[in-house]
């Protein structure tokens, strides 16, 4: 029982303790207010009601400030760092795909997580560029969310699909079925008949689900995670593996070729590495 109580206490956020302190202070003041000629001395329940009122108001103010701060830091819009803007399902794609193509970026290190002198300890640029500045300033949750959004934006550009996004887009791209018109597939290079190739495809499908359900969605919707730099760095490393695998994959498409005004035929799937 005591361990459970201590665990519960240790998980409370600073805002909870601020509100608790305000409530206790108000209770003490109200409960010790002397009577006057016009009214009797407040009782226990008067102090408790005042404590709940002021403590609850304080909690709402603290939570509201946290939400506003998170929005201003970039959660409600594009994150500084140069990654392309993700287009969610249902939005109109850019008029000029060439203008929206992501610019080449260099692999940058994430400060505090990777050793500066080790060239092998680099995160994938899709992850490191949008996350580096946020992580350096202690915003681990926002860094993970920015990296996931960056991966999604690059996925959409690689597949040239803007009607789907995030997990839905990649799960369809890595599906075992053959590509269809308007629905390309991502495949690792190599022989699809080998056990290793099939294992890699199984692994990337699992990693997609874990990355977007376990990291992207959680970081976007839970505002009280308080991920420190080490924790966020480990999650960024996970997203870096996903980004590296996606970039390695080839895009398999089918092409519609018009034979006449009334007929069209579908050519076999074509491989376009890195497109």
Automatic annotation (TrEMBL):
<feature type="domain" description="Conserved hypothetical protein CHP02391">
    <location>
        <begin position="122"/>
        <end position="246"/>
    </location>
</feature>
<keyword id="KW-0472">Membrane</keyword>
<feature type="transmembrane region" description="Helical">
    <location>
        <begin position="44"/>
        <end position="65"/>
    </location>
</feature>
<dbReference type="Pfam" id="PF09509">
    <property type="entry name" value="Hypoth_Ymh"/>
</dbReference>
<dbReference type="InterPro" id="IPR012654">
    <property type="entry name" value="CHP02391"/>
</dbReference>
<protein>
    <submittedName>
        <fullName>Uncharacterized protein Ymh</fullName>
    </submittedName>
</protein>
<feature type="region of interest" description="Disordered">
    <location>
        <begin position="82"/>
        <end position="105"/>
    </location>
</feature>
<keyword id="KW-1133">Transmembrane helix</keyword>
<keyword id="KW-0812">Transmembrane</keyword>
<feature type="transmembrane region" description="Helical">
    <location>
        <begin position="15"/>
        <end position="32"/>
    </location>
</feature>
